[in-house]
Amino acid sequence: MSLFRNFEARIEGLVEGVFSRAFSSEVQPVELARKLAKEMDSHKTASVARVYVPNEYTVHLSPADREKLEGYERSLEQELSGYLLEHARNRGYDLLTRPEVKFNTDDRLRLGEFGIQTRLVKAPSREGERPEQAEEGKTMVYTAPPKQPSRPPVAGEATSRLPQAVIESGDRRIAVPGTRAVVGRSEEADCVLPDPNISRRHAELRQRPEGDWEIVDMNSTNGVKVNGRRLASARLRDGDQVTLGTTTFRFVLER
């Protein structure tokens, strides 16, 4: 925890300086660092005596967010690379090479959304050899949380974190933001699925007070199916298959 707090303090200082202009959007360096570390933890591979983690990380940004990064990109890549190296050492992970972080533009992303794709790359053993590359993982898409004023914890308040709800659709993994999220083809939806057979605001994912999730049809044209059954609303369990239009996604709860 101390390593992260040290990094957080360092990078927040940079944000107040040269990065303040680059990150005028909702995507902030500290949030990128947290999610990069989460992706490292999620993609570790255990052998007999070692735990290997990816050493190549591609951060996908919307065109507007990427444009704001112009002139500061390389410096931020180096800062995030250093944080991942510290995170790996703190957790006892093995790296084949120093972590590399690079940015990419994805036209499918909106302002404030970012995706992370990981890969394990083995350095060449001889000069002239090409590096060995493992298969690229799916791109995990996150929505930057809204900025909220800090407050002291309330006595008796629960500190345990509930599982993160995720939509797995094709080569993309979309983290469901908050406790209510609209799924649809509109760019205004919280979780965008680009399918012409999906209504602009097709359905809503809702987290119930008990912590479990449900999906509710929002008077869509083609309805909602859960595990092949058409329903107006349904509770969702980890691994359920949900069909909207001609798109089927997997609902996943990540602890």
Describe the structure.
By secondary structure, the protein is α+β, with helices and mostly antiparallel strands. 23% of the residues lie in helices and 31% in strands. It is built from five helices and 19 strands. A ten-stranded mixed β-sheet has the order 4-3-5-8-10-9-19-18-15-16. A five-stranded mixed β-sheet has the order 12-11-13-14-17, with no helix packed on it. The longest helix is centred in the first third of the chain and has 19 residues. The protein is globular. About 9% of the residues have low confidence.
What series of H and E elements makes up the topology? HHHEEEHHEEEEEEEEEEEEEEEE
Compute the number of strand runs: 19
pLDDT averaged residue by residue:
81
Q: Please give the share of residues in helix.
A: 10-25%
